[in-house]
Amino acid sequence: MTAPRFPVVLKIGHAHGGLGKVKVDNINDFQDMASVVAVANTYCTVEPYVDSKYDIHVQKIGTNYKAFMRKSISGCWKTNTGSAMLEQISMPERYRAWIDEVSDLFGGLDICALEVVVGKDGREFIIEVNDSALTLLGDSQEEDRRHIADLVAARMQAICRPRSPVSEEPVPPPVGPRGILGSLTSLTHSETPPPSASDHPSLSSVGRRDSQGEVEDSSG
Question: How far, in Å, are 60, 87, 171, 184 from residue 188 at the CA level?
Answer without folding.
Answer: 71, 85, 21, 6
